[in-house]
Specification:
40% of the residues lie in helices and 20% in strands. The chain contains twelve helices and twelve strands. Strands 1, 2, 3, 4, 5, 6, 7, 9, 11 and 12 form a ten-stranded mixed sheet that branches. A two-stranded antiparallel ribbon has the order 8-10. α5 crosses α6 and α10 runs antiparallel to α11.
Length: 306
C-alpha cells in the first residue's frame, strides 16, 4: 500500500448499522482490508446494541468508531446519521453480517467510474448456502408486485416474480430499478441531494424508495456482479419474526400507496391495505408464506432453476 492511499480525500466512508450484531461484525471488519486498497473510515451507526460487539470493535480497530443513534431508529435513519458529516465522494453502506470478497469494494469503485450517472453500485450477493440473492430488481409495479406477493411463496418461478427480480437473466453488469441496501456503494452527493433515506421506513423498502427518488433525479443504479459479497442475513427476522413481517408489509404498503396518492386512488389504496394485511396474517402462521419466493439461481448455475 503506497503513501498516496493514506490521503484523506481517498478515505472511503463505510457505514454499518448495528443492533447487537454478535460475532458477524468482526467477520465484516476483517474482510474490509482485502476488499479495497483505499483507507477506510468505518462508522458503526448503532441502534441500541446490548451485546457489546460494536463497542469492542471500536476499541479493537483504529479505523472504526461508534456512533450511537439514540435508540432503535431503523435502518435508513441510522445510515443517514452515519453519512451526515460527509457530502462528496463514494461511501459503502452495508449490513454488518456481510463478508466482502477480496477486491470487492475496489471493483465496485471501478464499475462506478464506468457509469458517470450511477448513484448506487451493488455487488452480487451470495448466501451462505450458495444461492445468488436477486439484489438488482425492477421497481415494483402493481401487476408484478401483486403477482409476486400472491404466487411467489408457492410458485417461485412465476412470471411476475421473474419479471420483477430479473432472475432469468444471466448475471451481467447492467442498470436496475433498485439495488439491495444490504450492501452497496452510494454517491454521497446524490444521496444528500434527494434527502437520504426516508425516516418513515423503519426497515424494508427504504432502498426501493431511495432508488425511485434518485431515478427521478436522473441517476442510475448499476448492478456489478464482478464484485461479490456473502450475506448471512436474517438476524432481525429470527429474533422477532412476527414484528419483522409486520414491518415488511407495512413498508410495502407505505411505498405502494405513495405511488398512488390522489383522491381517486383511495379504493386502490384500500385494496392494497386489505391484500397486504391478509398476506401478513398468513405469514404469521405459514413459514412458506413468510419466507417468500425462494431464489432461482445458485452461484454456479448459468440458468435459473425451474
Amino acid at each position: 500500500m503506497t503513501d498516496e492511499t493514506h490521503v484523506d480525500s481517498d478515505t472511503l466512508r463505510v457505514v454499518a448499522v448495528t443492533y447487537s450484531p454478535g460475532a458477524s461484525l468482526e467477520d465484516f471488519l476483517a474482510s474490509l482490508p482485502t476488499s479495497t486498497r483505499r483507507p477506510v473510515d468505518v462508522v458503526l451507526a448503532d441502534n441500541g446494541s446490548t451485546d457489546g460487539a460494536p463497542e469492542a470493535a471500536a476499541r479493537a480497530h483504529a479505523d472504526v468508531r461508534l456512533l450511537p443513534t439514540g435508540g432503535n431508529l431503523g435502518y435508513g435513519p441510522a445510515v443517514n446519521a452515519g453519512l451526515a458529516d460527509v457530502r462528496r465522494g463514494w461511501a459503502l453502506v452495508s449490513n454488518p453480517d456481510v463478508v466482502l470478497e477480496a477486491g470487492a469494494v475496489d471493483e465496485l469503485l471501478a464499475v462506478a467510474a464506468r457509469w458517470p450517472r450511477a448513484a448506487t453500485v451493488g455487488p452480487a450477493i451470495r448466501t451462505q448456502d450458495g444461492e445468488l440473492y436477486p439484489s438488482a430488481r425492477d421497481l415494483p409495479q402493481l401487476s408484478t408486485g401483486a403477482g409476486h406477493a400472491v404466487f411467489g411463496w408457492a410458485w417461485p418461478a412465476n412470471p411476475w416474480t421473474a419479471r420483477y427480480r430479473r432472475e432469468r437473466e444471466a448475471p451481467r453488469e447492467r442498470t436496475a430499478g433498485w439495488l439491495s441496501g444490504s450492501c452497496f456503494l452510494i454517491d454521497v452527493e446524490a444521496f444528500h441531494m434527494v434527502g437520504g433515506f426516508d425516516p418513515g421506513y423503519f426497515m424494508y423498502f427504504e432502498d426501493v424508495d431511495l432508488a425511485e427518488r434518485l431515478g427521478r433525479a436522473g441517476y442510475l443504479h448499476v448492478y456489478a456482479p464482478s464484485a461479490v459479497v456473502v450475506h448471512e442475513g436474517g438476524h432481525a427476522t429470527r429474533r422477532q419474526p412476527h414484528r419483522m413481517q409486520r414491518v415488511h408489509h407495512t413498508s410495502a404498503l407505505r411505498y405502494l400507496s405513495s405511488r398512488y396518492p390522489r383522491r381517486r386512488h383511495r379504493p386502490l389504496r384500500g385494496a392494497l391495505r386489505a391484500g397486504l394485511g391478509a398476506r401478513m396474517l398468513l405469514s404469521y402462521v405459514s413459514g412458506r408464506v413468510a419466507a417468500g419466493a425462494r431464489f432461482q439461481r445458485t452461484v454456479n448455475e448459468q440458468e435459473p432453476s425451474s
